[in-house]
Each structure stands twice: as structure tokens, then as C-alpha cells.
Amino acid sequence: MCGIFAAISIERPFNAGDRLRFDNALNRLIHRGPDAGQARVFSFNDQAENFNLYLGHRRLAIIDLDQKSNQPFEVDGLHIIFNGEIYNYLELRHELEKDFRFVSNSDTEVILRYYQKFGTAGFDKFNGMWAFVIYDSVRKKIVVSRDRFSVKPLYVHEENNQIFLSSEIKLLKTLNTTLSPNQKIIERFLNQMLIDVGGETFYNEITMFPAMTVLEIDLPSGKRNQKKYWDFQQPDMPASYAERKELFRSLLIDSLKLRLRSDVPLGTLLSGGLDSSAITALIHDHLNNRVQSFSVVADEKKYSEEKFVDLLIREKKINNHKLWFKTDLALENIQRVLDCQDEPYGSLSVVAQYLLFEKVRKEADITVLLSGQGADEVLLGYNKFFFFHLLQLKKQGSYLKIAGKVYSSFVKGTSVREFSWKDAKRYLPGRTNKGRDFFKKPLFEDTIWEFETMTSRQIQDISLYSIPQLTHYEDRNSMAHNIEVRLPFMDFRLVNFLIHSPVEDKLKGGWTKYLLRDAIHELPNAIRWRKDKKGFVTPEEEWLAGPLGQYIISYFQAPSMLEEMGILDREKYIHTVRNFRSHAKWLVYGDLFTVFITEMWLRENFRR
Q1: Within this chain, do residues 136 and 221 fall inside the same structural domain, yes or no?
Q2: What is the mean pLDDT of residues 325-341?
Q3: Residue from 488, 510, 489, 509 nearest 499 by CA
Q4: How far apart are CA 214 and CA 132, in angstroms?
Q5: How far is CA 115 from CA 68, 122, 231, 514, 525, in A?
Q6: Which helix (H) or strand (E) holds 498?
Q7: Cis omega (within 30 of 0) for bond into 238
Q8: Is the pLDDT reported for residue 224 higher than 90?
Q9: Are residues 247 and 293 in the same domain?
Q10: Rounded CA gap, 201 and 209, in Å?
Q11: If both were cysteines, with which of 96, 137, 188, 411 could 77 make a disulfide (CB 3.0 to 4.6 Å apart)?
């Protein structure tokens, strides 16, 4: 887990001044890699004084702590900078040991050796998270790749026929580049709280390298070839539910085994919810690994899952550390988290997550944490999936099935009981601005309510609307404190199996995530069959009527850049914040917070 930076200029070489500039820029990623940092330059035309390629790396050592695995790493004329982990590297290495003599014990070398034998066609065998750049001096090409599910970031800026690639935007901002705000992305965020959709960022001049993709640049000609190395393939599906349940369990346990490979101590993020509890319980019971756990808890009982955290740690005798998230702590750190994230974020839960990672770093000898991220997307855990399923049944004319599922959900499960028009309006065509008259114009809108099948809907959330955003926040927050986060539910074998498994396996008898509840018997029943779902939330709506609201109102006493852009009516916005309680029937907290955090981001980056 690291930070990478590459600069490529085929036609016009870089010079010594550029080298100094790039070295200084690389140090902007020291938080991602405090253990080592170095760079190499390469000339494509044997010009000693100039160079065409800069490969820089900051290392957080997780696997093979030996200095010989520092990067840029080189074997047989292949050079790589790599951020991430290949969890199945031992199995892949075993395949190759008859062909190569390995010089390290790292997963980095496995990437190069696998590429050496199979080319880019071998990337679909990698089980992990990654962003890497390979310089192939033998074939005279550069190869860039990113993992399947947007877990590890890679940003791109092109200028004057030069390409710059970095793990974070903050590095690219140091390259004396004139940047401008991307109004379409700002409007998309303000309207539907979406980020990282379609490759664009909040900066017009910076894009994201696409997930599950490989780019090859031929150096003699400069020609580029970009293609997907993987897609959501239909796997062989067992015929019976009992077989599918057993396969799910075995895949999840194997995913955990792979993600427990580490030469440094590990822990888990434990919210008290079903997903993180399942991971913690399986590691403790089935894999016999006594990890430490870390939790965020709130004083307000309405938002707190502390009783479920306490239930699990008491029954399993698991060591747990708690972060008590209070209003003053949130307000003190809004700016710090904005600096860390580089772009606006959607709620104070991102601040809570940042502070939890900070607590881990200060109080425990932990470098790797396992998270339940992704379980809701692959197991249909969100409330919206139940109603998407009802819509699909309506298209099929299955009205009796609809009635049965609504009845079961109301009597046994959660979806109907938890339904909220306030939250559901995000998924209604032509999003209403009722309660949001502080916007001066209709905002850019994504058609996030459209879907053809439940499988395609899950793919949309994994590729566009949910996972990229969640992993974005988690990566920046964890790496700000030199911590790697691993996602067992995002193992590509598990993802492919679950999105193609029957809907009834996941939504059954009124229960969401039925397969998980049924298969993981290590969980206490009070957690396994709990009916409420809180998600990772904080008491933001309560705070908005108090100190947070006052903080926002005070901030907007100054002229607004969103107003200058023709998006916001500042006075109406202040009025709405001041009277949030009377608007709460129509507004969600995010409708107001996203305006505030975007305004703060604009002022920090573009107000001269």
C-alpha cells in the first residue's frame, strides 16, 4: 500500500529542473508511504542530461518488509511502481516458479513476472486492489492498470503532450498547473451526492483512470491502446440454495484468508452492523485470529450501534477501541478532512471515519484493517433494492408476488418499515426541489433510478453510484494515517457469484442480505437477525439544528462562490439552514451539508 507518481513525455524530454519539481511533488504523498521513498528516471533516446519518464514511489511496507522490495522495482528490464496488494500472490508465484528465479518475496515482483509471461492478459488473474505503472524497456511500452472496483485511486492530468499519473490530486496540484472547477460535477454532487462517476473529478483538468482497465502506450509511436481486462462474467451457478449457501460461505472465508496475509499486525473496523460483525466473528472463530476491533459510537441512542458492538465483543472476548464522535470534534476536523480528501465529501460520517483511523494509528500497533465495505451492494442490503425488485416484478406482471413480499417485509423484515419518502426521492425521476428552493437553477441529474435487471442494477452501484464513492473516502482517510484497508466482500469471485445469484437468495421472507444471515452462524442471533439498519451514520440532523447549523450560517456570512457561479441563492440557503426543522419533512441532511462543504472547497482552492 503506497503512493505512486509517474510523468511521461515522449516527444519533449524533461530536464533537471523538472526532476527537482517531481521529487518535491512526490513528497506530497509521504503519508501514503512513510517507510521508503525513491524515484528513477528513464530516457527513451539515451539522452543522459534529460529524461522521458519519471517513476516515483512512497512505500508503506505490508508484505515483504525487506528493502530489496522497495520501488521502483526492476527485473529483466521491467520497472514498476505499484499501490495496493495482490492477495493471491503466493498462488500466482507458485505457478511461475518453474519459469523464473524470484529475487524477492513481494507481490510486486509477482505482477512483473506474470506480465513477463502472459502480458496484460494475465491481469484478470490478480485478486486484489491496485494501481500500477510498468515501464517495459524490452517491448518499448508503458502499461497502466487499475483494479476492478475502484479501490485504489489513480488520477490523470495531461498537458502539452505530457501525461501525469498520481495516487492523489494534491500531488498534481503542485505541478504549476492552472486548474478550474468542474461545474457539472459540482451540480451532480449537490443534487444527488455523487462523486467519482464516469471518470470526471471536481477539476476540469484532472480525470480518474478507469477501473478494470489496462492502457498500453507504444513508445516509438506514442499510440495508445486502452481496454478492459475483466468484466462481470456469468459464473457457473449451483442449482440448489443449499449448495449456493455453502459456496458463498467458502468464498467469503477464502477471501478472508487471503486478506489476512500480512507481515504487519491487522485489525477490523466494527460498526455493530451485520457485515463488519460477520467479518470479525469469522476471523475470530473460524480462522482463529485474535484481531483487535475499532468502532465509532455516538452519544445519541437513535444513531448508536454500541449495544451490538458490545454484544459481539463480549461474547467473543474481542479487544475493542471506541471513538466517541461529538459535535465539537466534528466541527474541529471538517477542514482537515477536506484537505485529506482533495474534493468535497457527503457527510460528517467521513469525518468520523477519518478520526477513527487517527485513533487506530495513535493507540494500536495496527497497519492493516479489514472492512465490511461492499456487502450492501453485493447482497442487496440497501432498502432501495427491495423496491427495485418490486418494480421488476411489476414489469413482469407478478402482482401476487409483490403483495406477498410486501406482507413478508412488513411482518418479518425491514424494508417496508424503514421506507422514507425523504430518502426515496433521490431515486425518483425528475428529482423534486421542494424544500430546496435555494438552488437558482435545475442541477445536473444522473438517471440513477434506471435499471433493467437486478444484476445490472448491482453492477451500476458497484461500478458507478456507490462503491467508487465509498472506497474514495475510505482510501484517503486511511492512507492519511498510514493504514491499509482491505475489503473481503469485494473479492471479485464473491462479487461475481453474488450479483448473478438468484434475487431470492439475497431478499427472502422480508429479510435483506438473507444469504449472509443464514450462512454465518458464528454471529449472535441478535445481530444475525436484527431488523434495523443504521449504516455508518452520525447525528448530523440533530446537530444541524444546533452548533453545526450555527457554524454553517456563520460561514455563509461571506460572499458565496456557488452564488457567483449561478447555482445558489445564499440568503435562501441561510434561511433554510436556520429553519431546518420546519423543512425536515422534505430535506435530508445531505441537501444542506453538500452545499456547505462544496463552498468551503471552492474557497480553499479558487478564491484568490
Answers
A1: yes
A2: 94
A3: 489
A4: 10
A5: 20, 6, 19, 40, 47
A6: helix 492-500
A7: no
A8: yes
A9: yes
A10: 11
A11: 137
Grid cell at residue 288: 482463529
User: How many separate helices (H) and strands (E) can be counted in the chain?
Assistant: 27, 17
Tell me what pLDDT residue 383 has: 84
Structure-derived torsion over alpha carbons of residues 193, 199, 200, 205, reported in degrees to the nearest 10:
160
- The structure's pTM equals 0.94
Instruction: Taking the CA atoms of 544, 550, 552 and 556 in sequence, report the sign of the dihedral they define.
Output: positive
For 157, 488, 502, the CA distances from 2, given in Å and listed in that order, are 20, 20, 38
Adjacency order of strands within the sheet including 484-486 = 320-325, 292-298, 266-269, 368-370, 484-486
User: For residue 217, what is its C-alpha cell?
Assistant: 502506450
- The number of angstroms, rounded, from the C-alpha of 226 to the middle of its chain's C-alpha atoms is 23
Going by C-beta distance under 8 Å and a sequence separation of 6 or more, which residues neighbour residue 530?
Answer: 274, 308
Q: Which residue has the cell 453545526?
A: 548
- Dump pLDDT digits (tens) for 453-475: 999 999 999 999 999 999 999 99
Quick check: 522 and 551 in contact, CB under 8 A?
no
- Give SS3 for 552: helix
Q: What is the CATH number of the domain that holds 514?
A: 3.40.50.620
Look-up: residue for cell 473481503? 488
Mean pLDDT score, 34-39: 89
* Structural contact between residues 533 and 512, judged by C-beta atoms closer than 8 angstroms: yes
Total domains in the chain come to 4
Neighbouring-strand partners of residue 345 = none
What's the one-letter identity of residue 407? Y
Set of cell numbers at residue 507: 431478499
Identify the residue whose cell numbers are 444546533.
Answer: 546
Provide, rounded to the nearest whole percent, the portion of the chain with pLDDT above 70.
91
* Model pLDDT, residue 249: 97
Contacts 24+ apart (CB under 8 A), 448-457: 448/192, 448/194, 451/388, 451/392, 453/392, 454/380, 454/385, 454/388, 454/389, 454/392, 454/503, 455/232, 455/499, 455/500, 457/385, 457/388
Alpha-carbon separation of residue 38 from 24, 35, 160 (angstroms): 11, 11, 26
Answer yes or no: do 86 and 152 share one domain. Answer: yes
Residue numbers of the domain that contains 414: 383-424
Where is 53: in which H helix or E strand? strand 53-59
